[in-house]
Every structure is written in C-alpha cells, then in structure tokens.
Design brief:
Elements lengths: L8 E4 L9 H14 L17 H11 L6 H15 L9 H10 L3 E5 L4 H10 L11 E2 L12 H10 L6 E5 L2 H10 L2 E5 L6 H4 L5 E3 L9 H5 L13
Parallel strand pairs: 1-2, 1-4, 2-3, 4-5, 5-6
Helix pairs in contact: 1-3, 2-3
Length: 235
C-alpha cells in the first residue's frame, strides 16, 4: 500500500504553469518603469515569478525614484501586462490536461498571484471555464498574503473539500513551490517556461517539462491508490 494519501484535487498556478505569460511580466515592468523615466530596469525572477503586482510595485518604489503610490503603480503594471497578454499562449498540453483530469473526477482549482479577473479570462481562453468552479479560483486579490504564503492554496483546498495532503500543486515559481510546501501539499514543477529551474527543483516533489510529457494513464492513476506517482519524475 502507498504511504501517500490519494490525490483528490489538483491546484494549478496560472502564469507560467497553464499560460506562457511570464516573459510579458518582464516586458510590462520594463515598459512601465521606462514610461516614468527609468531605463533598462529589471527585477530578479524570484521577485516577479509567482508574486503579486502589488509586491512588484512596492519593490519598484523602493528601488527607483518613481513617486506613484503602490496601488497606482500596481494598476498601471497590470494594465500594461493585460495588453501584452491579449494573445493567450497555453503551456503545451495544458488544455488537454485540464480536460483529462476533470474526466477522472479530480477536483480542480486555480491559485494565482494574478487577479481573479485574469484567472477568469485565461480559463475561457483555454476552453476550461466550466472545469473550474468559480469558488475554486483564488486570485492575488482574494487573499491577505500572497505566495510564498500558503493562504491561497489552503483556501482552495477548503473550497474543494480536501485535506492539504490530498492535493497536488502544479507550479513554475519558487514562491509557489514554497507556498505549496508550507501548505503541506505535494508539487509538480513545470519547467518549460520557468526560471531558476536548477535552484527550484529541490523544492518540488516532481518535475515535468510540459503536460505532453505525462503518460496517458497519469490522471487515472492519480485517481486511484497510486498517489505516489506524483512523486516520480517523468522521463
């Protein structure tokens, strides 16, 4: 018998995990900061991946002479990022993975540092709007503490009616993996569009490049007594 709890729920990050949208994060930051007179500005990936726009805005205010409030700057960053992500590029295999997981009666949630409105927009673009209950969509504006705090993941688990040990998190960022770890959940690091992969791999239970790498039986096995499959590294 497996020593691991059966997986009953899948908690997906959004940007960089279901949608290839992280490069636009850097572009939006650079564009907005340049608009306010600071050229060639960049932040370390650990400070942007899996982080809220408010977190990014506060860092920019601390590191530049920009005098906008954090709320104003955050809103401007989000608006610029929304423009740059108007064309939605799914992580390879993501739409099919969501459908296959739902077909196996696995409960689905999306927990993102992006606002709830972005989750809704991207799920529609993935044709997965009906697969994720609105109550199981947790945006950065729904929590008091963003990743790496576990609040978002724990809230999603409560909404789905599962214990943390019964949830498997899909993530691409250090902040997200730390949040999953703090929540007591297993995690899969999606590496195809992630940064700092070597540094972040030890934080994850398993890794995959993208969802096409998973065997056809993966979701069915998760929904059985073979929950330890989540701890194996595909390939």
């Amino acid at each position: 018998m497996s020593q691991f709890r059966r997986v009953r729920a899948l908690l997906f990050d959004l940007d960089g995990t279901l949608i290839d949208s992280e490069p636009q994060t850097d572009q939006a930051i650079s564009a907005v900061v340049a608009r306010h007179g600071v050229q060639k500005f960049r932040l370390p990936l650990r400070e942007t991946r899996g982080r809220t726009w408010m977190h990014v805005a506060e860092l920019i205010r601390a590191l530049t002479p920009i005098e906008l409030s954090a709320a104003q700057l955050s809103a401007e960053l989000l608006a610029e990022w929304n423009l740059q992500t108007a064309v939605v590029n799914p992580i390879p295999g993501a739409p099919a993975a969501l459908k296959a997981a739902a077909a196996q009666q696995l409960k689905l949630a999306v927990v993102s540092s992006s606002p709830r409105s972005v989750i809704d927009r991207f799920l529609k673009a993935l044709e997965a709007d009906e697969l994720v209950n609105p109550r199981a969509r947790v945006g950065g504006d729904d929590v008091s503490h963003g990743k790496p705090d576990p609040e978002g993941f724990l809230r999603a688990a409560r909404e789905l009616g599962v214990e943390p040990a019964e949830a498997l998190v899909f993530e691409d960022s250090r902040a997200g993996l730390l949040a999953a770890q703090a929540a007591g959940m297993r995690s899969m690091l999606v590496t195809c569009c992630a940064g700092d992969v070597a540094e972040n791999t030890p934080l994850a239970s398993a890794t995959l490049r993208d969802y096409r790498e998973l065997p056809a039986t993966f979701w069915a096995q998760l929904n059985s007594d073979s929950a330890d499959l989540a701890l194996r590294r595909p390939g």
